[in-house]
Specification:
Layout lengths: L4 H11 L3 H10 L4 H19 L6 E9 L4 E9 L2 H4 L2 H17 L11 H17 L4 H19 L14 H12 L4 E9 L6
Antiparallel strand pairs: 1-2, 2-3
Helix pairs in contact: 1-2, 1-3, 2-3, 3-8, 5-8, 6-7
Length: 200
Amino acid sequence: MAVSIEAIKELRARTGAGIMDCRKALEEAGGDMEKAIEILREKGAVKAAKKAGRTAREGIIEVYSHGDGRIAVMVEVNCETDFVARTEDFRNLAHEIALQIAAMAPKYISEDDVPQEVIEAQKAKARQRALEQGKPEHVAERIAEGMLNKFLDETVLLRQTYIRDETRTVKDLITEAIARLGENIVVRRFVRWELGETEE
């Protein structure tokens, strides 16, 4: 199937993927833009998985202040080489992650960072609430799992819905950048301060 230049340009603008990758994805999708985006995401995930074990020690510390100094974020995003760390694409990614942290106030980077006792406490609380509402044991267990997933989606940065596009997560955003830039990319650490907040 012949793919128009306009369609390739649109897909490239929406995904940041290379021209040849966009052409191939559109051909594979039979010209369907949304399907082509999904194909590029899947290919990006495969590329990212191959790079996941590689050491990322270069990068940038992005500092962002929001709301006339009411919220501040500092985030370290790492890649493999200084060359990639200096690219506009990588710096934009770090900035977007800082914006995400400012807006959505995650507590953890990945699920692995969530302490087991926090997970158990969330499940127990949801399960207890369901039982108090008269739900059977097996239903209460399913409700607890659902509530735990909701908690993780809200508090884990990589699982959060990306603030600029609700069809993607922050993990998707990073995976797409890994596919484009050809290097492993890792959010190493972050801190978020809000004026007047107290330690919990």
